Amino acid sequence: MSGMALYLLMVHTLTPVIVVYFILLNGAYLALNVLSIIALQRRSREAILDSLPQVYSGLEPPISLLVPAYNEEATIAASVRSMLQLSYAELEIIVINDGSKDSTLAVLIEEFGLRPFPEAYRVQIATKPVKTVYRSLRYPNLRVIDKDNGGKADSLNAGINASRYPLFCGVDADSILQRDSLQKLVRPFLTDVTMVATGGTVRVANGCTVSGGFLTKVGLPSNPWALFQVVEYLRAFLFGRLGWSVVNGMLIISGAFGLFRKQTVIEVGGYRPNTIGEDMELVVRMHRLLRQRGQRYRIEFVPDPVCWTEAPEDRATLRNQRIRWQRGLAESLASNWGLMFSRRGGVPGWLAFPFMMLFEWLGPVVELGGYFFMAFAWVLGAISWEAFGTFLFLAVGLGILLSASGLLLEEMSFHIYPRRRQLLMLGLVVVVENFGYRQLNSWWRLVGLWRWLRQKESTWGAMTRKGNWQRKV
Amino acid sequence: MTDQSALILIVEDNENISQLLQFMLERQGYRTHMANDGLAARQAIEELPEPPQLVLLDVMLPYIDGFEVVGLIRARAGWEDVPVVMLTAKNTEPDIVRALDAGASDYIVKPFQPNELLARVRRYLKEKS
Amino acid sequence: MPSPGFRTTSELWLEVAWWVGVGALALTMLIALQIIVLRMAARRRQVRDQAMTQTWRPVLNAAMLGEVPATLPRLAARDMMSFLTLWLHLQQSVRGAAGQELNTIAYRLQCDALARRLLARGNRAERVVATLVLGHMQDRSAWDDLLREARELDSAASILALWALVQIDAAQAAETLALPLLRRTDWPLAQLATILQEQRNTWEPALARALGTVEPARLPDALRLLAALRLDLPQAVLQQMLGHDDPDVVAAALRLATSPEALPQVRAHIAHADWRVRVQAARALGPLGNREDVPRLQELLADRQWWVRYRAAQALASLPFLRPAELESLAAGDRFAADIMRQVLAEQAAA
Q: How close, in Å, is residue B59 to chain C by CA atoms?
């Protein structure tokens, strides 16, 4: 049968491709983890300084903390209160009320004694109209901007317009910070004048004790979805980004906690409105435009656990989140296509961007496609059960290795889960997550990719807003 | 003059300093109650049966800062006159002004001289009795 | 382990897959082992540190209060680093006689010899601890090694060496390091201010002299550092800087213009082409200016740059002889001026 022969030929050619892809994918992430060891070594040498009491004389660069808020009446007061407690010499907090439909603004006015203030507002980036600027009588460094609804990117731009200081830090309203978070995040700026942005890692707060907006005790969640995410964060989001940071190819700074040089952000045009992944899009654009200009710059990642957030604990929310992330990734890459292999691209253009394209963007297609293809081929008899079994052995084995390396790096660096029971639990999750969670993730990302393809132009619609803005109780 | 020695509430999150303070004061014969962050301080203020004769309070505390703790102290019935000595980290005017405005009786700048601190403690305890 | 036989001709690839999988599994086992080893080592270290602290903390506390025991407990070599860290924590929390007592204990334990050894041959963490210890102990015999450390590229370690040298002999440190200090770009302003704050008298002349030999490119940063440290430059040097070609230098120098002799030059720069110079001139004019400067500042209220308007408004609002009604009428002519004056007045009222 020529049809079968054709099919066999296809199997014959595609099998090596799939095998090589899996090896490359996991190998690349492993390489990033190895790179991050270098950064961790450097950091561990600095750690001795952390343990000695620091004396700050208040001359660190002042920071404007931007907090976009939409429909956060239940939690905004506690969040802002904890941000007022951050120990930083000169800090101004700007909450941007993005046209909330609930009583967010009323809660703020009540809790912090706000009064309208005649602010000479400077428009450096175009945004939706700003209605009023409020200043707190009780806390002179707190201001609130009330504006028409325009989305998170638009709110951040409005915050940038109103901010006074040369550095701004974008946080989510539900980010849980630690008192020295800003001090840690600003440190790369102190010794390197070419630094334009630093990003902090986000850790999973589920299972931790949170009191008064601050984390008092670290713990592992009991919810399985959250548990999987703890390991996933270690495997992919933490050390992967640190590895990229070592070679100045970091393309993602989480919107939950990132510090930027305001002037640079204004020069590249601010956040792009109506984008889903506005945090990643900005950073990729910064790379693209700064490279184009040939300007020396650095973007660094601070691996210390300085920002915590509640991870989704049910399938539906997690699914929406991952779909949204994939769409955001696709949009950020597509709108900055010029960076790929650009002449002055450097590491971002020649390594990081293609990596993102090949392994993150295209990843779900090949991963899932690979599984289905091999399964199909086995069912049809084109490959033996030993071959299929070997493929699964490879896929799962490499996955476990990658997850284990994340756990090792965590142990080498911060070991925030010191109890033996926690380590055993994490070890178990490292193995189990490769038997379904990773594949499920790939499926969701595939859906995200599909949705992006279908609606190239993203609309900041109700579904996405629900996933992003409303706090999961 | 009661037989009971004076009770001093120490609120300090730095373990080295709090251990030193406890050592110093207990050697002098005082009783101490330790709180190592803002929340523990609040708990102590709410749960101690009797007001202490002196409070040593650090400005920079986790969860609830020193200025708020002073407010809590002054708000509790029977504690309005308790002398509060704040340990400020920097010798800068705003912090000192803030400490005194918040209701503190005195301040000591860190790094401090242990003997000087002891002398101030003795003065406040003597004034009370 | 024999690999299973394969039916298709993509055997080679599946062989590779098999062996890579086996390798992955082996590596995973190694990793698991390494994690366990790390944990156990960390646990052991924690137990040792706790024992050391239990023994030594009471001794050090007693010493700080003036009661140095006749015999000291034994300190094992492997506990030295954690002892020194505890010692440093205490040194940085107290001052005066207590600090001196801590030094006495350190000398009795021969920490100075140990620290000098660590400084010469230790790894980075050890060198940093040694630097701080020698600084507190004011050990002059370590001068050369500390000087070498202060010239290193490592910004954190070098600035701590600077601190140690200033502790030992501020004047000599100023002579040797004033110029390298002005040249470095990676020493954070905050820490420099802390280190030099108490020794302003010895460092002021040295820095002023070094300013003369700094490369033109480094002048703006050097001047900004001096301004941050609130040091005063001799008038001649200041006027030379204020007359410089580079607007960056002029803007930085204006930060140091705090005395009336500089007034003529400050006034001259109010109408400078570069907005950064105008901003600094407006700011400087606040404490220095008098009635005849009001029209100049009024012009700046309508400047194109927000920061120039803001500082000019602040300067005007800080002049003691102008009342809010007068300030508002000064700003009435221009929409931007009125806006910025309203904000500054509201800020003043709120403060």
A: 14
C20 Cβ contact list (under 8 Å, min separation 6): A23, A394, A397, A398
Confirm if A292 and A244 have CB atoms less than 8 A apart: no
B1 within some domain: no
The crossing angle, in degrees rounded to 10, of helices C275-288 and C306-318 is 10
Q: In this structure, what CATH number is given to the domain that contains residue B54? A: 3.40.50.2300
Check CB contact under 8 Å for B14 and A53: yes
Sign for the CA dihedral angle at A9, A15, A21, A23 comes to negative
Among candidate residues C63, C105, C47, the one with its CA nearest the CA of residue B20: C63
Classify residue B97: in a domain, yes or no.
yes
C-alpha span between C329 and A111 (Å, rounded) = 36
Q: Cβ atoms within 10 A of the Cβ of C147, count?
A: 17
Angle at CA of residue A225, ends A221 and A228, nearest 5°? 80
> φ, ψ for residue B28 (rounded to 5)?
-80, -5
State how beta strands B7-11 and A195-204 pair.
unpaired
Task: Output the DSSP codes for A155-170.
Answer: HHHHHHHH--SSEEEE
Secondary structure of residue A245 in the 3-state scheme: helix
Burial A70-83 (b: 16+ CB within 10 A, else e): bbbbebbbebbebb
Separation in Å, CA of C67 to nearest CA in chain A: 25
How far, in Å, CA of A147 to CA of A127, rounded? 9
Residue that the structure tokens 């506990």 belong to:
C79
For residue C181 the two structure tokens come to: 């200090």
C203 to C175, C187, C262: CA distances (angstroms):
8, 16, 22
Strands B84-88 and B54-58: parallel
For A406, nearest residue in chain C (alpha carbons)? C31
Is residue B108, in this structure, part of any structural domain at all?
A: yes
Instruction: Report the candidate in A233, A173, A203 with the shortest Cα–Cα distance to residue A307.
Output: A203
CA distances from C123 to A44, A229, C119, C120, C186 (A): 12, 37, 8, 9, 21
Predicted-complex ipTM score? 0.89
pTM of structure: 0.85
Please, which chains are in contact with C (at least 3 CB pairs closer than 8 A)? A, B
Rg of chain B on CA atoms, in Å? 13
- Are the CB atoms for B43 and B76 separated by under 8 Å? no
Q: Which of B14, B39, B62 is nearest residue A179 as measured by Cβ atoms?
A: B62
d(CA A296, CA A339): 16
Query: How many separate domains does chain B show?
Result: 1
Cα–Cα distance, A162 to A166 (Å, whole number)? 12
Chain C residues close to A390, C-beta within 8 Å: 4, 14, 17-18, 21
Tokens at A92, concatenated: 């101004």
Per-residue pLDDT of chain A (473 residues; tens, 9 = 90+): 577 788 888 888 888 888 889 999 989 999 998 888 888 877 776 666 666 655 544 567 899 999 999 998 888 998 898 898 887 878 999 999 999 999 999 999 999 999 998 888 888 898 899 999 999 988 889 999 999 999 999 999 999 999 999 999 999 988 898 888 898 899 888 878 899 999 988 899 999 988 777 788 899 999 999 999 999 988 888 878 888 998 999 999 988 899 999 999 999 999 999 888 899 999 999 999 999 999 999 999 988 888 999 899 999 999 999 999 999 999 999 999 999 999 888 999 999 999 999 999 999 999 999 899 888 888 888 788 888 888 899 999 999 999 999 999 888 888 889 899 999 999 999 999 999 999 999 999 999 999 998 876 444 444 343 333 333 32
- Report the distance separating Cα B55 and Cα B103, nearest Å: 12
Name every chain A residue with its beta carbon within 8 A of the beta carbon of C228: 59
Q: How far apart are alpha carbons B87 and A343 in whole angstroms? A: 58
Tell whether B94 is covered by a domain.
yes
CA distance A389 to A385: 6
